[in-house]
Design brief:
single chain, mainly beta, Jelly Rolls, 5-stranded antiparallel sheet, 9 strands, about 0% helix
Length: about 100
């Protein structure tokens, strides 16, 4: 994680682990946090509540993002918003990378 970024290629940060999802904290500021989550097909992050809002931006792959009772089938360039306090989860059908822009916490 860095406090200040001028520029970097996010593709260079994408990595996968067959044993568990990979999460990289890219940036943490007083206004937002940026995280990169990389999952192999079948590595689900089960729906769970979180106290902060997040904007998911799908970079690569296909899967389903759950927010509350809604399920969204997503592919690259899809954007999903999960409000503060909502239940959210990720279920990739293929290898998948997602950029999350989070409310600071």
């Amino acid at each position: 994680m860095v406090d200040l970024i001028d520029h970097f290629d996010i593709q260079g940060r994408i990595e996968y682990d067959e044993n568990a999802p990979v999460k990289h904290d890219l940036l943490k500021t007083e206004w937002f946090n940026a995280v990169l989550v990389c999952l192999e097909a079948g590595q689900e992050i089960p729906p769970h509540p979180e106290p902060y809002a997040v904007l998911f931006i799908v970079l690569d792959g296909e899967g389903t993002i759950t927010v509350g009772i809604e399920r969204y089938d997503v592919t690259p360039t899809h954007v999903i918003f999960a409000p503060q306090g909502s239940v959210r989860g990720i279920a990739p059908r293929t290898r998948m990378s997602i950029l999350g822009i989070q409310q600071p916490h």
